[in-house]
Description:
By secondary structure, the protein is α/β, with parallel strands linked by helices. It has 2 domains: 5-311, 3-Layer(aba) Sandwich (Rossmann fold), CATH 3.40.50; 313-352. It has helices at residues 18-30, 41-54, 68-82, 105-132, 154-176, 195-198, 217-229, 239-250, 252-260, 264-267, 304-310, 313-351; strands at residues 9-13, 33-37, 57-60, 87-90, 96-97, 136-141, 181-188, 200-201, 206-208, 214-215, 234-237, 270-274, 299-301. A 7-stranded parallel β-sheet has the order 3-2-1-4-6-7-11, sandwiched between helices. Strands 5-8 form a two-stranded parallel ribbon. Helix 5 (154-176) links the parallel strand 6 and strand 7 (181-188). Helix 3 runs parallel beside helix 4 (105-132), helix 4 runs parallel beside helix 5 (154-176) and helix 8 packs across helix 9. The longest helix is centred in the last third of the chain and has 39 residues, at 313-351. The termini are far apart. Bound molecules: NADP nicotinamide-adenine-dinucleotide phosphate (NAP).
Amino acid sequence: MPRSAGEQVVVLTGASSGIGRATAVELGRRGAAVVLAARSEDELRDAAEEVRAAGGRPLVVPTDVADFAQVEHLARTAVAHFGRVDTWVNNASVSVYGTVEDAPVADIERVIQTDLLGAIYGMKVAAPLLKGQGGGTIVNVSSVLGRLSVPLQAAYCAAKHGVIGFADSLRLELARDGSGVAVCTLMPSSIDTPFFAHARARLGGKMPQPLPPAYDPQAVADAIVKLCERPQRDVIVGGAGRLFVLLHAVAPGLLDWVLLAGDGGAKLQTSSEAKTGGDNLDRPVGGAQPARGGWDRLSVGDSWYTRYWAQAPLVRTAALGALGVAGLAVARLLGGRAADDTPRRDALVAIG
Length: 352
Ligand SMILES: NC(=O)c1ccc[n+]([C@@H]2O[C@H](COP(=O)([O-])OP(=O)(O)OC[C@H]3O[C@@H](n4cnc5c(N)ncnc54)[C@H](OP(=O)(O)O)[C@@H]3O)[C@@H](O)[C@H]2O)c1
């Protein structure tokens, strides 16, 4: 059984902004040792202050996850400082919005290097480390777009699908070894973070926006903290994402139709605001990086689906148990009625 989050040493990439920042602070509140990784040292120091103020023990390790040597250095530094790692969270990411036709190969490569290879490097380093310690947890922050695809984000969708494929293989290998290492896939729906302001965009000068509805980054932070303590294979954050993943599994053509109807799949990802400022594809944007992105008008806040169903095994067991009991009661009732009808049917046969 994993330690409580407060007793853990957690390595967290992409810790300076958005979901990573909210997760770092939430782990800090529990008293955890948090190893904060991203490229911008200034922003990491800022986040570390928040973690410390919340009650946590932060360590800043500037890291570009697209460079394997830097990811190895991150693991070595975490162990040298805290003596071990309990959970490793691959969360860092970048994106490019625009059609495949418009996207330069260099942009596509950078998304794959950061979002796919960055997570693979994290898994490659974390798996033997945790195995050598006798167990631990790897959490990969993929996306609902790791199960289905939308227009205008092909490289990102490819990377997020790839993370899930790699992790599914690794999970089986670690289980074959009886390693005690859990591999979890977290799939957020749209989340209200600075991700959209950070992305490189070729949308006619417009800013990308979350495909509505967007959920609060705290919902993802809480889900990650729960996975540290109680690993699960897959968790989706946001009921809307759950519905889309289900629709894709049972009727992918229907989902294509929904995304193409009125060109909604593209239009709903393009805001009316002009894209200002730079992007974080090649280097950090700089400046304060909050957890929230300011998409209040698209936000629905917390994910009740995730909190009270996907990560609530007691509720699920009770609900399924109640459903089973109700099913048995209905079956008995119908069985009883059928038995009551038998003499009448016999009588009718006799009369006939
Ligand atoms: N927001 C959403 O709607 C949404 C939905 C589904 C999944 N997700 C996933 O959630 C995770 C967090 O995204 P977010 O929304 O919190 O985005 P965000 O606010 O833009 O944060 C991205 C983080 O990644 C870091 N980063 C970028 N490139 C890096 C690199 N090469 N090496 C190390 N760190 C790097 C950034 O810091 P530096 O720039 O300083 O390096 C930053 O800390 C991502 O995996 C994303 O795909 C987000």
